[in-house]
């Protein structure tokens, strides 16, 4: 699936491994095991579709196409911002930055704080663990996937059919499907704007993984 993740040009070469993914997934028993076989496959396709976009090293004329280059990066390229938001519950540690790391590019101190709390780790003081420990890196991504991002549902609940839209969701055009997952992850920057290259990239990866798993792909744009 991740054909070029270990390409010499990829900064994350050798970091993302199958064993690390499986080890991390075991900490979340419902991940990839909910529903019938097609639902389980679709969740994995959606997870890798979103995370491949977040870590892509592809370009339009890349060998094997742009969607064969997921998991090329493990850290955000632009690390100038500290991604520190005032939070009494999850205060930023002196000198630490909470830019995107790992498969889902976990960002912001409050996400590192909540994730660390759930995993039993001090990620506020040690955010680099998400980019240096391959199992923790996958665990952080799956934690975000499985955890409701209030007031939004979890990505897991959406893709497995366990989320029902409210009247407000329906009026805003949010229906169960892959588009809502994009909304959960980065909706403030990508959704409600019509055609967007970033959204198109997420869909391209998702379609690739659905094709590999012999799944139909009817993708909604949110």
TrEMBL record:
<keyword id="KW-0611">Plant defense</keyword>
<dbReference type="InterPro" id="IPR016283">
    <property type="entry name" value="Glyco_hydro_19"/>
</dbReference>
<dbReference type="InterPro" id="IPR000726">
    <property type="entry name" value="Glyco_hydro_19_cat"/>
</dbReference>
<feature type="domain" description="Glycoside hydrolase family 19 catalytic">
    <location>
        <begin position="136"/>
        <end position="146"/>
    </location>
</feature>
<feature type="domain" description="Glycoside hydrolase family 19 catalytic">
    <location>
        <begin position="10"/>
        <end position="32"/>
    </location>
</feature>
<dbReference type="Pfam" id="PF00182">
    <property type="entry name" value="Glyco_hydro_19"/>
</dbReference>
<feature type="disulfide bond">
    <location>
        <begin position="10"/>
        <end position="72"/>
    </location>
</feature>
<dbReference type="GO" id="GO:0008061">
    <property type="term" value="F:chitin binding"/>
</dbReference>
<dbReference type="GO" id="GO:0006032">
    <property type="term" value="P:chitin catabolic process"/>
</dbReference>
<dbReference type="InterPro" id="IPR023346">
    <property type="entry name" value="Lysozyme-like_dom_sf"/>
</dbReference>
<feature type="disulfide bond">
    <location>
        <begin position="84"/>
        <end position="92"/>
    </location>
</feature>
<dbReference type="GO" id="GO:0004568">
    <property type="term" value="F:chitinase activity"/>
</dbReference>
<comment type="similarity">
    <text>Belongs to the glycosyl hydrolase 19 family. Chitinase class I subfamily.</text>
</comment>
<dbReference type="GO" id="GO:0050832">
    <property type="term" value="P:defense response to fungus"/>
</dbReference>
<protein>
    <recommendedName>
        <fullName>Glycoside hydrolase family 19 catalytic domain-containing protein</fullName>
    </recommendedName>
</protein>
<dbReference type="GO" id="GO:0005975">
    <property type="term" value="P:carbohydrate metabolic process"/>
</dbReference>
<keyword id="KW-0147">Chitin-binding</keyword>
<dbReference type="GO" id="GO:0016998">
    <property type="term" value="P:cell wall macromolecule catabolic process"/>
</dbReference>
<keyword id="KW-1015">Disulfide bond</keyword>
């Amino acid at each position: 699936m991740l054909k070029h993740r270990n390409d010499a040009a990829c900064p994350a070469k050798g970091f993302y491994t199958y064993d690390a993914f499986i080890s991390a997934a075991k900490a979340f028993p419902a991940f990839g095991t909910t529903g019938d076989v097609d639902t389980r496959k679709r969740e994995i396709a959606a997870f890798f579709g979103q995370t491949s976009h977040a870590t892509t090293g592809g370009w339009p004329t890349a060998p094997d196409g742009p969607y064969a280059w997921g998991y090329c990066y493990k850290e955000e390229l632009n690390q100038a911002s500290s991604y520190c938001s005032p939070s009494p519950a999850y205060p930023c540690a002196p000198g630490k930055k909470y830019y995107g790391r790992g498969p889902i590019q976990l960002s912001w101190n409050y996400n590192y704080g909540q994730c660390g709390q759930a995993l039993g780790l001090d990620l506020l003081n040690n955010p680099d663990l998400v980019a240096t420990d391959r199992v923790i890196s996958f665990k952080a991504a799956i934690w975000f996937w499985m955890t409701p991002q209030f007031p939004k549902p979890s990505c897991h609940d959406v893709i497995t059919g366990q989320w029902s839209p409210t009247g407000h969701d329906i009026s805003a055009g949010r229906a169960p499907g892959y588009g809502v997952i994009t909304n959960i992850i980065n909706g403030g920057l990508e959704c409600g704007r019509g055609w967007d290259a970033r959204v198109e990239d997420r869909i391209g990866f998702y379609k690739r993984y659905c094709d590999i798993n012999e799944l139909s792909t009817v993708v909604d744009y949110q």
